Description:
Helices cover 34% and strands 20% of the residues. By secondary structure, it is an alpha/beta fold. The strands form 4 sheets. The chain has a 6-stranded mixed beta sheet with strand order 6-7-8-9-11-10, with helices on both faces. A 5-stranded parallel beta sheet has the order 2-1-3-4-5. A 3-stranded mixed beta sheet has the order 12-13-14, with no helix packed on it. α1 runs parallel beside α4 (117-127) and α5 runs antiparallel to α6. The longest helix has 15 residues, at 134-148. It is globular. Residues 429-433 have low confidence and may be disordered. Manganese (II) ion (MN) is lined by residues 13, 71, 97, 116-117, 147.
Amino acid sequence: MQIVTTHKNTDFDAFASLIAATLLYPEAIPVIPKIINPNVKAFISMHKDLYELKLAKEIDQAKVTRMIVVDTNSWSRLERMKDLANKDDLEIHVWDHHEGSGDLNPVWKCQEKMGSAVTLMIREIKKRNIQLTPMQATLFLAGIYEDTGNLTFPSSTAEDAYAVAYLLENKADLSIINTFLSPAYGEKQKNILFKMLKNAKRTKIKGHTVSINKLEVDGHVNNLALVVKMYTDILNVEAAFGIFEKNGEGGCMIIGRSKTQGLDIGEIMRKFGGGGHPGAGSAMLKSGDIDEIEKRINDVILGNQKAGVQISDIMSFPVFTVQSDTTMQDVAMVLRDKGCTGFPVVEGTKLVGIISRRDFRKARKESQLKAPVKAFMSTNIQTITPGKSPVEAARIMVKHDIGRLPVVDDDGKMIGIVTRTDSMHYFYDLMPE
Ligand SMILES: [Mn+2]
């Protein structure tokens, strides 16, 4: 018997990949975890008769000879499959779009970095000329859109976009997708609101009633702006701020709401590199301690804020570097793997140069690619200190026509890097809907 399964807390990408796998492996029985995201559950319950789904307890695990796993590569994310882990004759296939190696030990796998797992499967479906029904196309598209934030998350790839086009050609129904994808106020949002209400505090700052709430969230959550709005209304404060620390991913998001003319949220958020209008706004910080941010919001409202957003708030870290004796060939490979356009070159821990894609133009001959990177890197290095402003960084980058600026502390140690993208994000208005 063959089964196909996916991870617990099944999202649309996982469920779409599960169904796509049944097209690629027609013999396989789809086995679905019990714990499914609410919007996927709603979708399944409305299309129940289309899929013959089984739960893990409904199959005889002793009879399973092949297990196809989609959208994950580790045992711990599967539900009730422990018995299979010890089975010697089990053949495992994995389709996954996450980096890093799991512990499934597949005999065959398709693992590539993509915005969604179902993208990988659609590529194969297209190659094999398997016909899709509009319903299948719709489900698959929901998978891509959810995992890529409608192709806006930085993880989205051109392949994801090709897959979207293919699904639209195959009559994916966008109005159905809109009904099921991330309802504005769903289970996730409700849980966050409850947590915020549990820790709610109000203070008086400059005569205004204000509430600042700090909270950890798991990964990306849609519509936090709506949650903060509800929080402001329920607490009946003049202004409220949510500081959301993204668990595991690093970085924070600040969302503010105001019902009083005296507190202009857009102006406050601009101090943090974000934006908005008087009633609502947000900012995204790459680093920062949430207690420190709370204090800074206080200071900004009080008007005590000395400096606005600093380089340390927008820089990327840790910094990926290459040693100066690495060959150009190897550097080219890492550049391609990481999808970057360049990195700092170090000797030990000392910054000695920068290598970027355009330096490769200097290496024309095949033999030159075997030379160490120090022969081609640029040694005229501009740096910046963490306390400077993003405007300063942008000015240096424009003046010297460079795309990245290492951030060094007072001891000359490199602690981060500011890229053109980082400074662009700073100028970009991060306004919530
Ligand atoms: Mn996924």
